């Protein structure tokens, strides 16, 4: 039986770890050639070697998405090698320091907005340009539950993710009649290196507290987000565009 993404090309930013790696592996499992890009080179190579070990195809490109020249090189190189971009998962993101607004360091604001919002615009420009030439394509942006509700001490992150959902809706409207669908996933708290860095996974009390915020009383897995991304990129989601899909164990339902 033909796999859903056989013969397709998927580009994933932030594919070295966490949700990006799980999604890269899932796309490869379903037959796509996967371009794994990340600012971290070691992790990206490891993702590609996992893809190859499982019988898939992929390549790693080191790219800081907040650097416009590097983003241009990433997409030009992809089109040169594969001739097209069918699916793009704009996933790379950073968390930033936690503090109330008056104490939020300017550097945190600048960095989080640069990577989590402006850089997504950088990537979408290239993706949409190529997909418009093809007359087909699907983009998924990795937003967050914090793109739909507030969270104290995370002002820059919440603002960037709300902005990203807005940008998703605008892109969906502008390109709907050009064969391109643009959606977002909004994960709840997912067990990845991002939460590990924030000290939320290893401290049992913190972890329990975080789990309790979800109706399902647990954290999500990167693989559960990956399945939602594949669905939104697949032909099964052919009438879905401009939608921020919660993958949140009921966090926002409460
Ligand atoms: N983990 C969660 O609870 C959670 C919840 C909701 C949304 N998200 C979002 O999911 C996405 C992935 O997060 P994750 O949890 O897998 O985190 P992660 O830290 O495990 O992975 C993020 C990846 O992005 C890469 N990256 C960071 N800055 C980059 C840059 N400037 N250019 C290119 N790559 C860069 C990192 O190297 C890393 O591989 C992020 O956008 C994050 O905001 C995560």
CATH C-level: Alpha Beta
Low-pLDDT segments: none
What are the distinct ligands in this entry? nicotinamide-adenine-dinucleotide
CATH superfamily assignment? NAD(P)-binding Rossmann-like Domain
* CATH fold label: Rossmann fold
Question: What class would the helix/strand composition place it in?
Answer: alpha/beta
What's the mean pLDDT score?
97
* Rg calc: 17 Å
Q: What are the secondary-structure elements, in order, as H or E?
A: EHEHEHEHEHEHHHE
Task: Give the N-to-C terminal Cα separation.
Answer: 41 Å
How can the largest sheet be summarized? 7 strands, parallel
Strand arrangement in the largest pleated sheet: 3-2-1-4-5-6-7
Helical residue percent? Answer: 40-55%
Q: How many structural domains in the coordinates?
A: 1
> Which CATH architecture is right?
3-Layer(aba) Sandwich
Strand segment tally: 7
* Number of H- or I-type helical stretches: 8
> What percent of residues are in strands?
15-25%
Cα shape: globular
